[in-house]
Structures are given as C-alpha cells and as structure tokens.
Amino acid sequence: MAMSPAHGEDSPYFAGWRAYDEDPYDPIANPRGVIQMGLAENQVSFDLLEEYLKEHPEVSDCSAGFRENAMFQDYHGLKSFRKAMASFMETIRGGKVRFDPDRIVLTAGATAANELLTCILANPGDALLVPTPYYPGFDRDLRWRTGVSIVPVRCDSTAGFQVTAGALQDAYDAAVAARTRVRGVVITNPSNPLGTTAERPALDGVLNFVARNDMHLISDEIYSGSVFAAPDLEKFNCES
C-alpha cells in the first residue's frame, strides 16, 4: 500500500471540523462556539424516503434474496444495480446519451471511486492537477493513502473561476520544474464548492490539454442531478 506523510484529515477543512466537534455553537449553552459552515447535506428528501421504505419494505429487506447476495458477486457491481444506474444517468442527461451497464463499475461511494482511480492512474510521487477552489475532501481522498500529490490550478474570479488553458499549463510547468510527473486532471462539474457549471470552451480546453500531454481526465459529476437553472450544462459522456 502506498504511504503518505500527510494524515487523511490534515487540511484546514478538517481542522475546522475538529474545532466544531470540540466547541460546537449553541444559541443558549455556547453562543460563542464554532458554527459549522463547511458542509451541506441534502436532507430535504428524508421524509419522502422514509415514507417510501415504510410502504415498500422489500426494497431494504434482503431476506428474499439473501442467499444470492451473500455469495461472491460480479466485481463490477450487481447487474441489476448497474442497469438502474445507467438508466438514471441517461435520465438526468435528458436522454441525449446512452450508457452501457457492462461498462459501469460501482464503488461504495464517490470517495472510494476517486481514491481507486487515483491508485490506478498514478503512482506514489506523481501528481494530479486540480482547478481551484476544489472540494476540500480531495486533500484526503486523492492524497492520503495513495502517495499522490495535488497541484492546484489557479482559477480567477474575474473569469468566473472557469479553468483556462493558460492556468493548466502554468500548473503543469511548475510540476515539471519540480520533477513531479503529472498523470491527469481532476475536475468537478458542477463545481463543489461554487455550485457553478463549466462552460463549453473551458471543457474543450481541458480535453485539448489532456490529449496534448497524453494524460488522464477524471470528471467528477456527482452533482449533475442537482442542476436546475442550467439546462445547457455541459457534461462529459465518455465512451471509452
């Protein structure tokens, strides 16, 4: 296993979490405590899910298929689940693209997927370019157990934080000057933490950059199903 000198929670983001855990705000008992503003959890559908599960207990009750599910399964994930996932991704993309369930690999969440991809695409000591501002959990997900480093790509507010070819090249050149091999670019679209969507010229620039430098692209689109005001959201629908 790759080892990293950094701890999995060695970042300002997790330092804030620790401060909150140690001194949480309370309007009466602790009015000068820490307010947690670094996390947004979607809990508005809990009541709908609870009601559905009460009416359809078979969905969460594995007793009917326990023997089958308790045996070794396809390492890519249950076929039925992959079919459902393909259908879901087609739906949230407006039916503009088809997904082959046989080309989908399921993991236990996006964190596991990002860490797994990093282990596959890069070796300890390599780096990934990540446009800023980026999801602070990447400092843990991409670095901690992989031995891979993150090279921030500076995105300016004057350009709406859209990643540019110049910024990618500057970050790449700095990594090369430090004798660090860059294995790919990681983007999040829609953005976490900004909530903005990438414009087509920016995505074209990223694609051209990775192709020109013979590296990989990881497109994290975990929030693509939560876009309501951008019907023209550009998404990567990789066929290979």
UniProtKB/TrEMBL annotation:
The keyword Glycosyltransferase does not apply. GO terms for molecular function: pyridoxal phosphate binding; transaminase activity. GO terms for biological process: amino acid metabolic process. Keywords: Pyridoxal phosphate. Its cofactor is pyridoxal 5'-phosphate. InterPro entries: Aminotransferase_I/II_large (IPR004839), Ethylene_sulfur-biosynth (IPR050478), PyrdxlP-dep_Trfase (IPR015424), PyrdxlP-dep_Trfase_major (IPR015421), PyrdxlP-dep_Trfase_small (IPR015422). Residues 35-232 form the Aminotransferase class I/classII large domain. PANTHER family: 1-AMINOCYCLOPROPANE-1-CARBOXYLATE SYNTHASE 3, BIFUNCTIONAL ASPARTATE AMINOTRANSFERASE AND GLUTAMATE/ASPARTATE-PREPHENATE AMINOTRANSFERASE-RELATED. This is Aminotransferase class I/classII large domain-containing protein.
